[in-house]
Here is the input.
Amino acid sequence: MAKTRTTRKTLDSYTIKGSNKSIKPGDCVLMRPSDSSKLSYVAKVEKLESDAKGSNVKIHIQWYYRPEESIGGRRQFHGTKELFLSDHHDVQSADTIEGKCTVHTFKSYTKLDSVGNDDYFCRFEYNSSTGAFNPDRVAVYCKCEMPYNPDDLMVQCDGCTDWFHPACIDMTPEDAKQIEHFFCQNCSSEEQKLLQNSHATSRHTDVKVGTKRRRR
Ligand SMILES: [Zn+2]
Ligand SMILES: [Zn+2]
Here is the structure.
């Protein structure tokens, strides 16, 4: 019946030192880097445990990697608050927990009204030994065929519903914010073809239609 000294207790929750914030398995936390000039590390809490007396709390975590920590490095389509859920598990002292944060799904992140300091998003799982991502393909947008970076302003074409970077369609960000209806070059020429078919007499060549037109 006697318990040995090495018995560890699993905790349901833990209050972060110096704060009143409580964390539990499944939550995401910011971990203090050993080099204070670096950004905090982000991890998902898997398990919390203490010694039999309830002290010496250890946190079992799954690390999130920032794009620059991945083998391929940061790419243009990576958001500033983007993280990859890695296969790298670890056990750390709970003293290194700096605070709590939220890692949103890509979809819910793009729907946030405002992005706070502690808001992040994750759309890829990352294999830290091979550098592979899951999913290994994502939808690409615009003429430049880039995956969506939620930090970038984009305008949607009313025709094909593809999204475009203002710079890629010769539009200023100011115009892009104000435009109510936009047709990309392809859709403009489709529209033009339809017009030509219904009005066989009118022939236009290489005319951009609708790209900056506003309709009410
Ligand atoms: Zn583009
Ligand atoms: Zn279009």
